[in-house]
Amino acid sequence: MNAHEPVFAGYLPKVVYEPDWNIIKQVASVSGCQSEGPVPKEDSLAYWQYNRAFFYPTVALALAVAEPGAAIFGYWIYPVLFDGAEGPRPIDLNAMFDSNDTSLPAESPSPPWWVLGYDAVAFETEYRCWGCSPLTCNGYATDEDGPRPVNRYGLLRTPEAAFEAALLFQAEQPEPGTYLVFRVEVPPESPLLSLEP
Questions:
Q1: I need a surface site. Which of 22, 54, 76, 187 has the fewest CB within 10 A?
Q2: Count H helices, E strands: the chain?
Q3: Partner residues linked to 123 by β-bridges
């Protein structure tokens, strides 16, 4: 399943939620339910310049819409759709989203960023937007002794573990929708990296 190479989808600034949970110290999931992304501002058009996957094509644009204290994330999506009807199945990510919006970025971060972990995220087909990450939104994350051990960021450590989680979420539907697997990255200078034990 993980033979598919992930596709770089873009950047997003998020104010990272720091819960008082045993395992998870900062929520770095793709979902905006706990660690929120940018909000529209009346005097700025930058917010609306996201691409068809709802991420920003450049770091500069992501920084332009960042809230104070936000961390910048880079997102890669594995082109495999987990849905109840036919999934998992390979897909063309550019074709999955609204063709009226900007295509996915042609260039990924250079030099490469640090991988924080992997997430399985709901895609709400009716509204064509990202939904929840059941790992942190629905309590599916576990410690080392459980079936889905996550790191301090609420992310799985391998793409294989994220594919297994996506299969489970596809079957159980803790959040309605189809699921995709993400690789979550941060720049080498990210303050989040200094917190990893």
A1: 22
A2: 4, 7
A3: 130, 178
Record the tokens describing residue 1, joined without a space: 């399943």
Q: Which residues of 121-133 are buried (b: 16+ CB within 10 A; e: fewer)?
A: bbbeeeeeebbbb
Name residues whose C-beta falls within 8 Å of residue 185's C-beta, 6 or more positions apart in sequence.
Answer: 73, 74, 75, 76, 109, 112, 113, 114, 115, 116
**Full-prediction pTM beyond 0.85?**
yes
Please identify every stretch of the chain with a pLDDT value under 70, giving residue numbers as ranges.
1-3, 85-87, 125-128, 195-197
Domain boundaries, the chain: 7-189
Angle (CA) 2 184 46, round 5°: 130
- Where helices occur in 83-127 by DSSP H, the ranges are 93-96
In one-letter notation, the amino acid at residue 156 is L
CA dist 186 and 184 (Å) reads 7
Which long-range CB contacts under 8 A does 171-176 form with residues at least 24 apart?
171/84, 173/84, 174/132, 174/134, 174/137, 174/138, 174/140, 175/122, 175/131, 175/132, 175/134, 175/137, 175/138, 176/122, 176/124, 176/131
pLDDT of residue 66: 92
Cα angle for residues 197, 150, 115 (degrees, 5° grid): 65
- Dihedral sign of CA atoms 30, 43, 108, 123 in order: positive
**Could you give the strand order of the β-sheet that contains 178-186, starting from the edge strand earlier in sequence?**
7-14, 71-77, 178-186, 114-124, 129-130
